[in-house]
Specification:
This protein is an alpha+beta fold. The chain is 21% helix and 36% strand.
Length: 138
């Protein structure tokens, strides 16, 4: 008797990377607040800002929500989304909302909503590497 592998070939279920990225961006995530949860699409998050043991999330519609998790824990919630990169001890940005990077000691980024976020000198090399990996060239 011959044993056959019943799993279909992986290529028959492969999803184009851009479609996978779009599907992930459209997915809503649950974010814990002091009085419950908010549900937001990942694509709406412009940047995260540490606020002690809380994290302020800034959204593309101009709103801001304070969630009851540290920045590190919030980054873990967003771990499946490679567009989020820590640029400073207190800031994580969504590369999809990046307008420009201005060089300097660490430099700073300008986001689509016009806000400026510093890139720490210690995070600069990792940030530039992440830009190269995410956008494919620099």
């Amino acid at each position: 008797m011959k044993i056959m592998n019943m799993r279909p070939a992986a290529s028959s279920f492969s999803v184009h990377p851009n479609r996978r990225r779009q599907a992930q961006a459209m997915r809503k995530i649950a974010l814990p607040t002091l009085d419950g949860f908010i549900f937001k699409r990942v694509e709406q998050i412009i940047f995260l800002e540490a606020d002690g043991n809380y994290t302020a999330l800034h959204f593309s519609d101009g709103s801001r929500s304070l969630i009851c998790k540290t920045l590190q824990h919030t980054e873990e919630l967003l771990g499946a989304y490679p567009q989020f990169i820590r640029v400073h001890r207190s800031y994580t940005i969504n590369l999809n909302h990046l307008e420009r990077y201005v060089r300097g000691k660490g430099g700073h980024v300008v986001l689509e909503d016009g806000r400026t976020v510093s890139v720490s000198n210690g995070k600069k090399a990792d940030f530039l590497k992440a830009l190269e990996l995410y956008f494919g060239h620099l």
